[in-house]
Amino acid sequence: AGVSAEPTSRTYDCSSLPKFCFEKARVPKDVSVKKLLTDALHKNQYLKRLELQQIKDMVECMYERSYQEREYVITQGEPGNHLFVLADGKLDVFQHNKRLTSMTVWTAFGELAILYNCTRTASVKAVNKVRTWVLDREVFQNIMRRTAEMRQEQHRNFLRSVSLLANLPEDKLSKMVDCLEVEYYDKGEYVIREGEEGSTFYIIAQGKVKVTQTSDGHKTPRVINTLQKGDYFGEKALISDDVRSANIVADENGVECLVIDRETFDQTVGTFEELQSYLKGYVATLSRDDKKRLERSSSR
Ligand code: CMP
């Protein structure tokens, strides 16, 4: 591998700027260029899982950089500070000086070191004069951070709207938001299976699920309830060691559940006893219909 020719960071310093500083890194560009960059990022197998807004922000902040024939754009083994899209010219990819492949225009590369914090897995060298679009690592990280913060804010607001958690003190709710996982299910997928052990609690953030249960004399489980956004299930696992008393099956595509495990719940919200007394207090505030629902769910 030769000398690294990665562009040096531009003049803005994101680390010292407020959280949404990547706005300052926006570089105006033609709509047609934005479309080509967006498609290139979407085509990359590692970048395509990013959210649309993240890709959009990345495209906005990319800037142009040219390389001369035989110049190294990336050097294997070095830290990576930039993500690239090839716009014009030809690039070769080498590993340990062995040529692996060449790259066609509108291909994104250099994503691995940026996404996974590893050193460059290959060298990338200009075969002829090359034009690229570049995204700085700090800007990429700021975009990711901003999305994570926005997501947390959405989760916090949503959890606050869930009746069970409405009176939870702010610090506990924040801890819960920090620790929760998000899971997605498509129609027909099982979130919980009857009879299995489980120690996770779910709140539906989007979509509907069916609650089904096996009963004596019936081979196939019967639908005993449907739950939707704001409803929760799996709460029994938080207060007892019983196995799951019903199946929970996604009733549409893209059901989004916020998932909290027992350990997290203990550490953030409190002990079983605290939870039980909280639930008791909560039940006291419910309307008769709500109480029936809770009784049904806790007798599952
Ligand atoms: P990164 O490791 O950050 O820097 C080198 C880049 O080369 C790497 O990300 C990929 O984008 C690209 N790369 C690595 N291995 C291959 C390969 N076998 N074929 C094509 N591109 C590769």
Radius of gyration: 25 Å
Strand proportion: 25-35%
Overall 3D geometry?
Answer: elongated
Point out poorly predicted stretches: 1-19
Q: Encode the helix/strand succession as letters.
A: HHEEEEEEHEEHHEEEEEEHEEHHH
Protein name: cGMP-dependent protein kinase
Subunit structure: Interacts with GRIA1/GLUR1.
Domain Cyclic nucleotide-binding: 46-161, 164-270
Subcellular location: Apical cell membrane
What's the SSE blueprint?
Elements: H1 31-43, H2 52-61, E1 63-67, E2 72-74, E3 82-88, E4 91-95, E5 98-103, E6 108-109, H3 111-116, E7 123-126, E8 130-136, H4 137-161, H5 170-179, E9 181-185, E10 190-192, E11 200-206, E12 208-213, E13 222-228, E14 232-233, H6 236-239, E15 247-250, E16 255-261, H7 262-268, H8 272-284, H9 288-298
Antiparallel strand pairs: 1-8, 2-7, 3-6, 3-8, 4-5, 4-7, 9-16, 10-15, 11-14, 11-16, 12-13, 12-15
Helix pairs in contact: 1-2, 2-4, 4-5
Adenosine-3',5'-cyclic-monophosphate (CMP) binds at residues 74, 80, 93, 100-101, 109-113, 120-122, 124.
Describe this structure in words.
- This protein has 300 residues and is of the alpha+beta class.
- It has 9 helices and 16 strands.
- The protein has helices spanning 31-43, 52-61, 111-116, 137-161, 170-179, 236-239, 262-268, 272-284, 288-298; strands spanning 63-67, 72-74, 82-88, 91-95, 98-103, 108-109, 123-126, 130-136, 181-185, 190-192, 200-206, 208-213, 222-228, 232-233, 247-250, 255-261.
- β12 and β13 form a beta hairpin.
- α1 (31-43) packs across α2, α2 runs antiparallel to α4 (137-161) and α4 packs across α5.
- The model is unreliable at 1-19 (pLDDT under 50).
- Adenosine-3',5'-cyclic-monophosphate (CMP) is lined by residues 74, 80, 93, 100-101, 109-113, 120-122, 124.
- Interacts with GRIA1/GLUR1.
- This is cGMP-dependent protein kinase.
- Residues 46-161, 164-270 form the Cyclic nucleotide-binding domain.
- It is found in: Apical cell membrane.
